[in-house]
């Protein structure tokens, strides 16, 4: 049985596949495309395609199961969804299976009387901000330091990958850069360019970040040479494009935030997207010390 849950902007999660609140008669889980074709002789060639914003529709049933009435359950639900945007959690194969998410807003919620069955059963629409996505993650750890070690090189900007294991180490492709590189691999199985959030944990001096796909260089990010940017112990730098906005934020150990977007190098991409295949991320520090890093990729799917 498939399951649905909602998460609001306060981080609260509400199960909507229960005896008290049940989401049913669901539509809009697929997709539609707007296609632009160009005629070439007697045939047509696809020039551009764009996914349409298809609402997820259905009915929300509120019952008298438990110690509250259908009206009370409805009002509590309305208060819950007021904290938008929401994240819809979808388990197509049951709660122990895969989890897909989609950022949505409850754009329609009818309210009627309790019917002859003693329930409120009304139409609801969720308008999406994103396609369905699966979160894939990776992070550096102490074992990365032990197994990947120092990676020496001849200073080439984007040299080929080589295997340089030493005794007791695992053979792992590494790039010659003459610095300590922490490598994280994430995999994507779709052609949709999917956003990435990078979290770099201090200390780090003038950190930079690079992406490779199937061992080919794609892009790099970093700070302007005049910024003299560094992270203190415990500070976090978050480079994020997963919400539809592009942000670079430093978060202190006490939770204070400051915007450092203006300090980025505008000659570099800085914000990455996953591509089909193996996406390798490397983070380095100007002082050549290892940098603790966490990567989150949102793998976008047209339908799941």
Report what the structure shows.
The chain contains two helices and 24 strands. With 304 residues, the protein is mostly beta strands. The protein has two domains: 3-130, Elongation Factor Tu (Ef-tu), domain 3, CATH 2.40.30.200; 135-301, Jelly Rolls (Sandwich), CATH 2.60.120. The strands form six sheets. Strands 2-1-7-8-9-6-3 form a seven-stranded antiparallel β-sheet. Strands 10, 14, 19, 20, 21, 22 and 24 form a seven-stranded antiparallel β-sheet that branches. It has a four-stranded antiparallel β-sheet with strand order 13-23-16-17. The longest helix is centred in the first third of the chain and has 12 residues, at 70-81.
Ordered list of secondary-structure elements with their pairings:
Layout: E1 3-7, E2 13-15, E3 21-27, E4 33-40, E5 43-51, E6 56-62, H1 70-81, E7 86-91, E8 100-109, E9 120-128, E10 132-139, H2 142-148, E11 162-163, E12 173-174, E13 182-188, E14 194-201, E15 204-205, E16 208-213, E17 216-221, E18 230-231, E19 236-240, E20 247-251, E21 257-259, E22 273-274, E23 277-284, E24 292-301
Antiparallel strand pairs: 1-2, 1-7, 3-6, 4-5, 6-9, 7-8, 8-9, 10-24, 11-12, 13-23, 14-19, 14-22, 14-24, 15-18, 16-17, 16-23, 19-20, 20-21
């Amino acid at each position: 049985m498939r399951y649905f849950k909602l998460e609001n902007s306060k981080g609260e999660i509400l199960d909507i596949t229960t005896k008290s609140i049940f989401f049913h008669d669901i539509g809009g889980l697929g997709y539609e495309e707007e296609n632009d074709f160009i005629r070439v002789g007697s045939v047509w060639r696809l020039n551009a395609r764009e996914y349409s914003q298809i609402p997820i529709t259905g009915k929300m049933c509120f019952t008298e199961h438990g110690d509250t009435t259908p009206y009370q359950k409805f009002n509590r639900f309305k208060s819950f969804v007021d904290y938008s945007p929401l994240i819809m959690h979808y388990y197509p194969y049951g709660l122990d299976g895969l989890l897909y998410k989609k950022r949505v807003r409850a754009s329609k919620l009818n309210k009627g009387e309790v019917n002859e069955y003693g329930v409120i059963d009304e139409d609801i629409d969720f308008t999406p901000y994103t396609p369905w996505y699966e979160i894939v993650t990776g992070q550096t750890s102490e074992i990365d330091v032990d197994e990947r070690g120092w990676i020496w090189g001849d200073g080439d900007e984007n040299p080929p990958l080589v295997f340089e294991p030493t005794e007791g180490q695992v053979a792992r492709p590494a790039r010659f850069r003459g610095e300590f590189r922490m490598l994280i691999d994430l995999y994507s199985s779709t052609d949709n360019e999917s956003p990435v959030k990078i979290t770099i944990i201090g200390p780090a001096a003038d950190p930079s970040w690079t992406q490779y796909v199937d061992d080919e260089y794609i892009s790099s990010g970093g700070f302007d040479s005049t910024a003299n940017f560094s992270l203190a112990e415990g500070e976090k730098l978050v480079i994020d494009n997963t919400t539809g906005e592009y942000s670079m934020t430093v978060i202190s150990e006490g939770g204070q935030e400051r915007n450092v977007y203006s300090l980025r190098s505008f000659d570099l991409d800085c914000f990455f997207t996953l591509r089909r295949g193996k996406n390798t991320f490397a983070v380095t520090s100007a002082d050549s010390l290892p940098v603790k890093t966490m990567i989150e990729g949102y793998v976008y799917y047209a339908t799941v």
